[in-house]
Amino acid sequence: MLVPLPGRRPLRIRELPGVHPLDPYAPDFAAQFRMPAGGSAWDLGCGAGLYGCAAAAFGAGRVLMTDTDPAAVSCALRNARRNGLAGVDGRVGSLFAPARGERFDLIMTSVPQLPAPGPVLRTRFGGPDGLEFFRPLARGAARRLRPGGRLYALVTGWAGPGRVRRLFLDHGLFARTVLAVERAFQPAEYEAMRPGLFDYLRSHAAGDPRAWRRDGSWSWLRVELLEARAGR
User: Fold this and answer.
1) Res 2: pLDDT
2) Fewest Cβ atoms nearer than 10 Å: which of 46, 81, 88, 120?
3) In sequence order, what DSSP letters do the residues of 17-66 get, joined into one string?
């Protein structure tokens, strides 16, 4: 697929079977990245590598693509080569493990965050409250960012952007929403993963009226891109 970027030529991103597909709002989120020329970027949980490729297209001198799935890392690197992007490397591993001791100007991530009472799809399950991966992300992000660096994190209404912002704040990261979109869904999408899951999600998000809404025969899930920095 062709992914437009402001002020840049479109990226050609090819997805492979079994690799987490691009979210429909991913191009809009990638357009928000503020990449310093010649800086370094880490696409953590890269999937097909759109975020990392976008950072390279925006002028990053070095980009690291990491994922727990070797097929995803391979797909991401192929997409970087397909677009003629230099300075891109790939490694396999979970969260911060693939780049111990390294620091970056930008970290971009979309961690698994679907709340569920038990395991569902590996690429989406975020524990009973959806924050299983956000907790270590919040604890360790500041140490992986260069001075003035930014962490960009996709957060769905099920996990709760407000919850994630408070979690970041507990670890010295001040976060703001830079873009919010909505994704259409049907409850059957979640029931197919696990019977009763949609009722569980409704109960989990009950305190946040903006998490999701119904409109006619469709429902809409709020998704936010958070930008977090150490210090104000």
Assistant:
1) 87
2) 81
3) TTSPPPPTTHHHHHTT----TT-EEEEET-TT-HHHHHHHHTT-SEEEEE
Distance separating the N- and C-terminal Cα atoms of the chain = 38
What residues are paired with 152 via a beta bridge? 108, 227
Helix/strand/coil for 109? strand
Angstrom distance (rounded) from CA 124 to CA 97: 20
Residues of the chain with pLDDT under 50: none
Q: Which CATH superfamily includes the segment(s) 2-230?
A: Vaccinia Virus protein VP39 (3.40.50.150)
What is the structure's pLDDT at 230? 85
User: What are 116-171's pLDDT values in tens digits?
Assistant: 999 999 889 999 999 999 999 999 999 999 999 999 999 999 999 999 999 999 99
pTM of this prediction?
A: 0.95
Q: What residue spans of the chain are helical by DSSP H?
A: 26-30, 50-57, 70-82, 134-144, 161-170, 187-191, 197-204
User: What does pLDDT average to over the chain?
Assistant: 95
Tell me the helix, strand and coil percentages in the chain, rounded to 5. 25, 30, 40
- Segments making up each domain of the chain, as ranges: 2-230
Backbone angles phi, psi at 132, to 5 degrees: -55, -40
Separation of alpha carbons 232 and 175, rounded Å: 9
Please tell me what DSSP assigns to residue 82: H
Question: What span, in angstroms and rounded, lies between the C-alpha atoms of 163 and 175?
Answer: 11
